[in-house]
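Many introductory courses stop at the sequence. We go one step further.
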Amino acid sequence: MKLLKLKIDSKFRSIDPGFSFDFRTEVNGAELVQFQPYCLAGLNGSGKSNVLEALANIFYHLELCANLYKPDVFKYFFTPSLNPNGPDTFELEYLTFPTDADGLKSGYNYVRIRKSEKRSPKMWKRFINPGEPLELDEEEEDAIDLFPRDGQKVSDGKGFLPELVVGYSSGENEILSIPFLKSRLIRLDEHSQLASQKGTWEESTHSLVYVDAEMSQAVLLACLLFEDDKTLEPLEKELGVMHLRSFRMHINDHRFKVPFDGDQGATDARYSIFDYIKPILDQLKNISTSWYEHINDDTAFIDKTKGYVLLDFYVDDVMKKAFRKVFDNSAIACFRFFQHLYELNNHFISNVVKEHVYDSKGLHTDGKMPIPGPEQKAFYFLDFLIHKRVKKEPKEEFKDLLLRNFSDGEHQFLHTMGICLLLKDRRTLMLLDEPETHFNPDWRSKFIRVLAESIKAGGGNNLLKDILITSHSPFIISDCLPNNVFVFKRDAETNGVMATSAREMDFNTYGAGVDLILQEVFGVQHSISEKALEEIKTLIAKDDINEILRESRHLNESFEKGFLYERIAQLREQKK
């Protein structure tokens, strides 16, 4: 998908009514087929993350409209005509493309969604043939039903929403994560309902995916098992990751509760996780290097696990081939299976806690969601070993390292690259909040290039996804085109959020130097730290040349130190 326009007509966080964000004002084929992420830049508190939060909340609300299943208790927390998480009044326009689209030759769908105050959202679409203008008159024949009709699990409009909306925050932006967290709990109840009907695991129709520390392991595993060496080459080049050596899966056979049952509350019925995932669990046992299962015969304590299974996998080409067969050669299907297992980790959460989370207006959930211990979890990975080059010069050295031994920066690099690789051929909106927080300067300067090269090597279709990145890094901004960089500032009088593209500022960000970006985007008028700058200012005020020379020896060269040389030259001229 490709975003065109977001307009917000109700108060949302620091965004005032009337806020309009034009991602694209025209369809430029050359730009659409290239890897060109959007970079939202600005100081802390400037409102750039609010745009990501708004999009996450909008698609959360649209998902609830488009999917039939919702827990019974949701009648207290969801009304199509009201989005309490906000923004409640909005207009959104974007393009969607067929998965087999060849450039823009195949045509595409122009989609418009509008939610007015106290009204349910409406969707219109029009198929645009190559060369036709972007026009949509919103006549009845263009309207798409956003709500399921009788006998439908999802509405017709679901097919014109993103397949996946992915959230990621290296800075643990809790506000961004909340709609994703609510979606996880809804899916948990959806799986519980299916289990209570003697069904077995199937992929959920909900699209929101939040990649936290646990979920990122599933992302990385799917990439390392399914992608070829050429696609994974940047991981070897930048991080020294050679290949996945082995991993263990630990699955507890907890019994999760039947979903909400109206005003009667949940019953005491429990359903086995092993029974629910049996088709895939049996296949994983068959392809594992070894497995062990323990059955607990003590059924007196209904909330205790019935047992657990350990599955060990030594990874070689044969094992990769076996995994691909289990998941029909689909890395995303493999990831989605692990994603839902992680969601089952919340099986022990009470209905009361769920209601507290569902009732959150999008500000915080801290303290509301209990964190499960190893025995409470339904699933987790162990002994995740990666063969890694730890030294290149003067002689290469390799070690098998646990994933938890990687640095924070390495984890972040793996997370963001893995997300882009995994979803390269899916209709996806990626919301990445400051993904470079723990990167060293070298990785920040390479980040956009490495992502672009990885996706190109993997054969990804750039028409199918849009990537929004918030960032404070001049290096990332320098790798983005000026029409894709938006600078966020607060209005001096109203304190409202303003977003201006670098192109409107007549500032070419692409290839711009760090000093220039610091000045134009962040308002920093100097290239060194405040403490060192104050020392230079103090020395400039002195009249003794020898004192200035002596006390400036510890200062390295910089543009600002040049003013000291000018001061010294001035004093020497005065002496003459």
